[in-house]
Write a structure and sequence with these properties.
mainly alpha, 2 domains, 73% helix, elongated
């Protein structure tokens, strides 16, 4: 690829992301591999993977947080907590269905996510941290089961 074309592609990436995507897709479909902005394309693909993992962690923390609040603060239960648990379970299950390779990642980060959810539950409920078990009282399967604890 010529230096001018490389500069043009990088400039497009920085000035009009959507147009850069459209141009890159056209180049790939046409098998015009010499024109593809490979550095930014590779970076974008790596970022996609990171975003999927980050989203999974975020959704898992929210489910765990609301399960803790549901179980340990029953007088405060609300439809919004139940709805949040259902929504974030659905998101996680959809992600796992689309990308089954995320399951080992979920299992690897489960304890860290629980620790974050536990601390946040203590903050939000104003209950002492030790009011919540130090080890997660739920298995990953229970956390993802649609009606576990909230039925």
């Amino acid at each position: 690829m010529s230096t001018d074309l490389q500069a043009s592609q990088k400039n497009l990436y920085e000035t009009d992301y959507l147009q850069w995507i459209d141009a890159t897709v056209k180049q790939l479909r046409a098998k015009d591999f010499a024109s593809v902005d490979w550095d930014n394309l590779i970076e974008e693909i790596e970022d996609m993977s990171r975003r999927e993992r980050k989203s999974l962690k975020s959704n898992l923390i929210i489910v765990l947080l609301h399960l803790l609040k549901w179980q340990y603060q029953p007088e405060q239960r609300s439809g919004s907590w139940r709805g949040s648990i259902r929504e974030h379970r659905r998101r996680i299950n959809d992600d796992l269905k689309d990308s089954p390779s995320l399951l080992p990642y979920l299992q690897a980060v489960f304890d860290d996510c629980y620790a974050n959810a536990r601390a946040q539950a203590a903050d939000e409920t104003e209950m002492p941290l030790d009011a919540f078990p130090s080890r997660c009282p739920y298995t990953p399967e229970q956390v993802l089961e649609s009606d576990y604890l909230t039925a």
